[in-house]
Amino acid sequence: MRVLVSGGAGYIGSHTVLALVAAGHDVLVVDDFSNSKPTIIARMEALSGKSIPIHGFNLTDVDKTERLFATEQIDAVIHFAGFKAVGESVAKPLEYYRNNLDSTFSLANAMANHGVAKLVFSSSATVYGEKAPVPYQETYEYLSAASPYGQTKVMVERVLSDVAKAHAGWKVALLRYFNPVGAHPSGEIGEDPQGIPNNLMPFIAQIAVGRRDKLVVFGDDYPTADGTCERDYIHVMDLAAGHVAALEHLGSMDEPVRAFNLGTGVGTSVLELLHAFERASDRKLPYVVGDRRPGDLAAYWADPSRANQELNWRATRTIDEICADTWRWQSKNPQGFPDS
Ligand code: WQD
Question: Where are the domains positioned within the chain?
Answer without folding.
Answer: 2-181+233-263
